[in-house]
Amino acid sequence: MKETILKRRTIRRYSPKEVSDELLDGLLEAAGRTPTMGNLQLYSVLVTRDEQMRAALSPAHFNQPMVMSAPVVVTVCADFRRTSVWAENRKAVPGYDNFLSFMNAATDALLYTQTFTCLAEEAGLGTCFLGTTIYMPQLIVDTLKLPRLVMPVATLTVGWPDEEPALSDRLPLEAFVHREIYTDYTPQSIDEYYTPKEQLEENRRFVEINHKETLAQIFTDIRYTKKDNEALSENFLKVLKAQGF
Question: What gap in Å lies between CA 146 and CA 139, rounded to an integer?
């Protein structure tokens, strides 16, 4: 498993080879052994194979081509509905329509997503994690007919790889592991951790073609702006409330 993770690549191009139900269901079931709060498994997984359904989901993911080219799209939801319905049918009164419950369910869902990703890639499949899931959640809610207390938090495209892209760069261990207490970052440590990343040819080129001075400005001024973050946050909280949390 360690070697698989160290070599993992995000796959955006897929072969037309089918992913069998037997393989997929086995991976989905095995991922259910992931850690979970109170042994409640506060997630639901929606598997989308149908081309028309994938086309309906595609706009929620900014029409990224892998949504249509991958044979399987997996949407993982924070789900307190199942637990609540169970409680109501067992003479118990659930109290899970709140933000803490959403956070617990979202944590469960993301842990499941990571476990499934590792298992799928170990089996030779390729995956792409779509961070766009939380950008336009209402469209996903409507398309997948998600009821109250169910909120989409993660999406994966899954299929057999038709490419072998280069490994993405990663920060060194010292950049994100803190021993005993949190050690705040200094200009010197930032230079140490980020200069190799900034000096990569592809990142230098990215800065150049976007007419920016630093790689950091690519993220703050173009990719993840304050304005967009605030607007998307407001929308996410609106949908979260509408879903009962």
Answer: 10
Element (H, E) at 76: strand 72-79
Are the C-beta atoms of 152 and 73 separated by less than 8 Å?
no
This prediction's pTM:
0.95
Whole-number Cα distances in Å, 178 to 56, 185, 186, 193, 218:
43, 11, 14, 14, 27
pLDDT in tens, 188-203: 999 999 999 999 999 9
Give the helix/strand (H/E) hosting 73: strand 72-79
On whether the CB atoms of residues 11 and 163 are closer than 8 A, the answer is: yes
- The residues, ordered by sequence, that sit 6+ positions from 78 with a Cβ below 8 Å of its Cβ are 42, 43, 102, 105, 106, 108, 109, 150, 151, 152, 153
In order, the DSSP letters of 153-186 are EEEEEEE-BS--PPPPP---HHHH--SSS-----
Q: Write the pLDDT tens digit of every residue in 144-156.
A: 999 999 999 999 9
